[in-house]
Amino acid sequence: ASLHKRGFKSKIHKAGLNECAAATMLRMAGLQRALREQEAGGNELTLIDPMCGSGTILTEAALIAGNIAPGLYRRFWPFLSWPTFDARAKTSWDGAMGHAKASRRKEKPNVRLIGNDIHRGALDLCMENAKNAGVAPLVELRHGDVGSLEIDSGSTGDGRCTPLVVTNPPWGQRLNDHDDVEAAWRNLGSFLKHQCQGSNAYVLSGDSAVTKHLRLKSDRRVSITVGNVSCKILHYSMY
To answer: Which residues, 6 or more positions from 213, have their beta carbon under 8 angstroms from its beta carbon?
Structure first.
């Protein structure tokens, strides 16, 4: 299997996100920096994926928070069986694997990872993946339309939440109901405007025609290719 596959997905969602793309979004969102600042300040960090699907973003975030090396759950590394593999390097490889295992955080990270999706089947798959990765205790799932989602943590003092938002809404290429896709983006925009003032949101889009339904202006756009599709990671500052 390709090295981008971490080994925690037992089933593949038809609109599932590539693990490396999810990690890229989290890196751009500054998750590692936010975790360091959170540890220094002693506050709980909240990250939410309001349209989480099978939970790749949430699971990747949990791996980062737990300092769990990518691929630590892989059961097979093809290069070990290559005819050209130098057996003398096996000791170094075993040492690297041992270091990765020992580097995993022993205590539970002070982080709250909230996922929401309108499809129960996707949420079941999300929790299954989190369990496979050993990070299920960090993940909190909710069922419902993103437009009616309310968050009760990270308050600014007047009821608004200030989590870090990272999400991959449907683009309409693998989930074919165009009307549902437009409604999903409109509802996501409503959630960001009314629930996430003061937050930073990072949204992946492979279709600018659906992105406009957010009715928000992005501060930054970064190009990325996902599954041979040219996409944009869009940053929104929810002032």
So the answer is: 182, 185, 186, 189
